[in-house]
Amino acid sequence: MNSTPTQTETANRRLERRPATKTNRWIFLAIIGTIVIVTLLPMIQAWQAVNAFEQTATDAGFTLRQAVSLIVDEPVNEPTYLRGFESVAVNDGATAELAIASTHATLSGTFTQTVAFMGKDLVILPGAVIEGDLQIAAAKSVTIRGTVHGEILGNFGRIFRPEPTQELPPASPIP
Fold it and tell me: Minimal CA–CA distance to 75: which of 119, 126, 113, 121?
């Protein structure tokens, strides 16, 4: 009897191994697919939210101003959409509606209309006043050291509103 396997026996052995190999491939593809979906889905949802925020401002006829770090030192007098890829600072308020999209934004001055924000952190500095509503499309944190007369609406992770410090009466002299 010949001890070397025939071509038919070799082919049969290959076929016996293939189902396990195909199963491993399907498992590997399922794992990779799950990772891709779990990673991409939040990114797609974030992109859609930013796009909707931007579209709302554009449809309302807002003027676009954008920069990597946008600093606005003069009062804003027309409806404006401020897009800062890193930060936005509005230093002298606004007499018109504002929409702000940026990672970080700081507001000072008086804002007579609604202020809309989408980003990570919004800080309303001491002395700043928002007479209209503050609409948060999305924010991780909002710090209000100034005053908001309107409603605070929207989606934010945490809102920090420190209490004003009260002056203590002068200490009486020790006898």
Answer: 113
- Contact predicate 89/71, CB 8 Å: yes
Query: Is the pTM of the predicted complex or chain greater than 0.85?
Result: no
Q: Give the whole-angstrom CA distance, residue 135 versus residue 137.
A: 6
Q: How confident is the model at residue 30 (pLDDT cuts 50, 70, 90)?
A: confident
**Order of all β-strands in the sheet with 115-124:** 63-72, 80-90, 98-107, 115-124, 134-144, 152-160
Domain ranges of the chain: 1-59, 62-160
Percent of the chain scored above 70 by pLDDT? 81
DSSP string, the chain: ---SPPHHHHHHHHHHHHHHHHHHHHHHHHHHHHHHHHHHHHHHHHHHHHHHHHHHHHHTTPEEEEEEEEEE-SPB-S-EEEEEEEEEEE-S-BSS-EEEEEEEEEE-SEE-S-EEEEEEEEEE-TT-EE-S-EEEEEEEEEEESSEE-S-EEEEEEEEE-PPPPPPPPPPPPP-
